[in-house]
Amino acid sequence: MAPIRLRVRGPSAVVTLEADDEWTLAKLLALIREKTGVESFTLKSAYPPVALDLSDAESKTLAPLKLGGETLMVIPTEGGLAGGPSAAAEQIPAAPPAPKPKPFTPKRVDVDETVVPWDEGGGYLVLRVMPDDNSCMFTAFGGVMGISDPAAQVRAEVASHILANPDKYTKVVLEDTEPSVYANRIKDPQRWGGSIELQCLSEIYGIQICSIDVKYGRVDTYGLDKDTRCILLYSGIHYDRIAQSFDLGLPVDMDVTQWRVDDDSVIDKAKQLAAKLKSAHYYTDTQTMAIRCEMPGCENWLGSGQKDMIKHTKETGHTAFSELSID
């Protein structure tokens, strides 16, 4: 009998199992129940995940299923996990509070504003909110690629990529900044990432990145020639990640964060989520917002809109601002 090794990702753990290709599917299902503690479930495999046919499990053998080397996702059925839908928009654990100067803070929304059903996809699209630490874009993308504590690593990769491609990332492209200076600055944890960094990350990781603007509903796409895509949500001064969850009680590490580029249904659904967030005012109008510099010795500087902010940054090198509420 030929051995089969496969990984099984359950709601609380990832386990590696060994089976034989002559096993019945029923025997494998029994082993999965034993190792994961989940009694009733569906299984999804391949990429993007598709449901396995679990019918006739007593008569099917594993050999025709070609599961060797696969990762199977265990999706609980009959109501999902304990805790229910209240866990739907489980937030990415926040990083420890950053010292002053403070970054912009994204607007807050209720849990039910961060979820849209996606019946065709077999679950929901959800907003995964990133910490307010000036590295939101890097953290959002790092989660797509499964990078733990991604901000410093992703920043360093972008800096190296810019320096390794001087013909493409010239001073003109880099906002009138010398490549060496720009690369050094982007490693600073107080610096924000934007379109240049998203283009770099698309090239580094070979993935299409779609950034949906909440206010305008616009989709900016980086990496048109790629086969898979991920989706970030841009709310004017902040990036979050959009993910697919097959059950609202599943933990964040069971999210699907990559999809085929030849199927735009996920983009359509993500735009619906963005429209829902716009209705909840989950965005900042960068053209009219009142801002103040939070760098020591510059607290009295006030400005209005992104143009003033960019101008002040170029003149002083300051990168930490707060948005002022105008009642």
Automatic annotation (TrEMBL):
Q: What is its main location?
A: cytoplasm
* Catalytic activities: Thiol-dependent hydrolysis of ester, thioester, amide, peptide and isopeptide bonds formed by the C-terminal Gly of ubiquitin (a 76-residue protein attached to proteins as an intracellular targeting signal)
Give the start-end ranges of region Disordered.
84-107
Enzyme Commission number(s) of this protein: 3.4.19.12
Q: Where are stretches of biased composition, namely Pro residues?
A: 94-104
Q: Which domain of life is it from?
A: Eukaryota
Ordered alphabetically, the record's keywords are: Cytoplasm, Hydrolase, Protease, Thiol protease, Ubl conjugation pathway
Q: What is the lineage of its organism?
A: Eukaryota, Fungi, Dikarya, Ascomycota, Pezizomycotina
Q: List the Pfam families hit by this protein, alphabetically.
A: OTU1_UBXL (PF21403)
Task: Identify the PANTHER family for this entry.
Answer: HIV-INDUCED PROTEIN-7-LIKE PROTEASE, UBIQUITIN THIOESTERASE OTU1
Its GO biological process terms? proteolysis
* Annotated GO MF terms: peptidase activity
The answer to keyword Cell inner membrane applying to this record is no
CDD domains reported in the protein's UniProt record: OTU_OTU1 (cd22745)
Localization terms from the record: Cytoplasm
Show which residues constitute the signal peptide. Answer: none
Domain named OTU: which ranges?
Answer: 125-245
Which InterPro entries does the record associate with it?
Answer: OTU1_Ubl, OTU_dom, Papain-like_cys_pep_sf
Name of this protein: Ubiquitin thioesterase OTU
The record describes the protein's role as: Hydrolase that can remove conjugated ubiquitin from proteins and may therefore play an important regulatory role at the level of protein turnover by preventing degradation.
